[in-house]
Specification:
The complex is a heterodimer of chains A (314) and B (475). With 314 residues, chain A is mainly α. Chain A folds into 2 domains: 152 residues, no CATH class; 161 residues, no CATH class. In chain A, 75% of the residues lie in helices and 0% in strands. Chain A is globular, with a radius of gyration of 19 Å. Chain B is α+β, with helices and mostly antiparallel strands. Chain B folds into 2 domains: 389 residues, no CATH class; 64 residues, Dna Ligase, domain 1, CATH 3.30.1490. The longest helix of chain B is centred in the first third of the chain and has 25 residues. Chain B starts with 22 loop residues before the first helix and ends with a strand. Classes of the chains: A mainly alpha (314), B alpha+beta (475).
Amino acid sequence: MLGKTAGGLYWMFRFLERSENTARLLEAGFRMALTRSTEGGTSEWESVVTTSGTGDIYASKYDDYNDTQVMHFLLCDMDNPSSVLSVTKAARDNARMVRTALTTEVWEAVNDNWMTLREMLSAPITQVELPTTLAIIRQKSALVRGALYGTMLRNDIYDFARLGTFLERADNTARIINVKYYTLLPSASFVGSSLDNVQWEMILRSVSAHRSFRWLDESDMSATAVADFLIFDRRLPRSLAFCVKQSRENLHYLENEYGTRHACHDIADRLHKRFDSQSISSVFDFGLHDFINEFITDNNALGAQIERDYRFNG
Amino acid sequence: MTRNKVPFDEMRLSDGSVREPYAEYSAWFNQQNPARLQTKSDEAEAFFRRTGITFNVYGAAEAQERLIPFDLVPRIVSHREWSRLSKGIEQRVRAINAFLWDIYNRQEILRAGRIPQELIAKNEAFVPQMMGFTPPGSVYTHIVGTDIVRTGEDDFYVLEDNARTPSGVSYMLENRETMLQMFPELFSKIKVQSVSDYPKTLRASLAACAPAICNGKPTVAVLTPGIHNSAYFEHSFLADQMGAELVEGHDLRVVDGRVAMRTTRGYKVIDVLYRRIDDDFLDPMTFNPDSLLGVPGIMDVYRAGGITLANAPGTGIADDKAIYSYMPDIVEFYTGEKAILKNVETHRCAEPDALKYVLDNLDKLVVKEVHGSGGYGMLVGPAASKKEIEAFREKLLAHPGNYIAQPTLSLSTVPIFVDQGLAPRHVDLRPFVQVSPRAINITPGGLTRVALSEGSLVVNSSQGGGTKDTWVLED
């Protein structure tokens, strides 16, 4: 496979994952803003923008945070390279580039995703339309994922697509924890206070885990339990440990298929081991914020190393 | 070639009865419910959009992807018509390859005085780097798309030879695929020659042109300028169908005297490169130094026998519009036969007498840029306003050598499907030819382009033309 093709697949799925994550983040922010006073709502929108990693671009365009602006910025704004519309186009451009590596089903799903969202996001989205809009964004990316699962050979093509998905997802979950880490600190939380419950719910919602958390841990809604769930629980497909396990697995398949081990394999092993050797209490001892920051750095380093080892760019 | 006569209708005789090749189709069509056909037509469009069969239009604000309108009425060619046509095309393509070898080697045709020396020496399409070099298998034009128009029962003219990087073959294949899906019953009634082998035979034809250094199964790749190129869909389609890698310039580099592509497991040598970028962009070290699309050093590898380029650089000298007017001589010179297909009478504006004639008759002629393509920069005299003609006159006077002029041909018509049923529209035809040392292979059919507005003669997809499936009937 061409290095460029591997890179195109990897980025195609990073962008698709990002689109879905942004939709989820907006949904969580929207619910939170609805249930809070104007003041609190504003800071909530700010934290949504910060979590999406586009704070600087936002600040260069706007002076304040409100629902209409933030919704437009994160959904439709082509000046924002991480807006849903931007990443949907980027995913589709990458898909066109790697067209020969995709099944017809995957290509058509990605193409349809772009055509639908381009139409839907061509005009600003109102509050009333938001839930439907977000549902369609999630549904369209689920179709791409389904086509990938159902029709693609399990070979290097599939591995690069999955690596893009899990690296992006891990980064996303880590950034959510990073922005809200103070609400997860056991010391700072007032156990059972409504404020914390709302914050935790917001976090869980932004990784689509508010219901699964309750299934698993109904009795123990605490900062520690939520943090443990998001970081260590390998049953949760958006936890850091799960994403790392999956990335490592796909890298392992590539190692077997190609018969070559690279530096990225060592990084993935190290990252994986960290989740096995640590627990939530050792993370709190070490410092949650530092732990997450270190994870984000290492996860990025893994991505960069994969790009080098598999010659995405030269 | 008299003007103002009724154009040749490929489906109907002047008394309104149906010509033989269309007999079965016409009978079928008359039994169809127009509403159902309209639904089918809409479905076809949705299908093209969903599958991304689009082309990009240059100059539009955001690189726009457009559909080429597809008309569901096939253009039907009888077996007899086709065999004459394909003989004529084969003869011409053979002559072109002999001409190219001659021009880049002994130049006998120039010494014989059949073509003026300066027409070659001063021609931008002439590539001096090809002098004294014979490409693998002596094949210059691995792929040709000969543009043909028809004006009467047996009157076929070659309009352009397209010996550089002709496009459109993906539409030929997708149009057939679409027809098979829309109207499977038609193909069980009417025996139509298949076109679907094109990618397979192209791969084999290209592989047969691999350089001598290649041992084992040749690695073939398609070189595209990238996703923003107007024909990108076709590039990826062909690569996909041939099972070849689709590469861009930055995927390639010269490694140990061969051209190799960067893969996830290191560099892999390419034997045959089907390149869909122009000569000028192929190698910044030899041609345009600003080109980012090509591969630095690829021409050196090529000349040393390390890779086959399809088509060879410098083939443009054979399809140049000024050379075009000499094609009957060229065919005769190299094949010893009279040309089977006609050439359109061409006035070379570089010649004073011809220029005077053209200036006096601008309202009746089609004037084309010698190096232009895609229907841009041309004047269609009979369809132009006085103002347009005068503006063009200025351009022509400033650089007469840049233009040739031809009479307006009365292109044949084939019906398209409209609200009222069938309506005749002008068409041309681009059959696709594969050349290898073993054989010249012409796919039965080709791309029929159709001018969708009534009376229009401009069939280019960039200017509102559409396409049709082209059927060559079995014997």
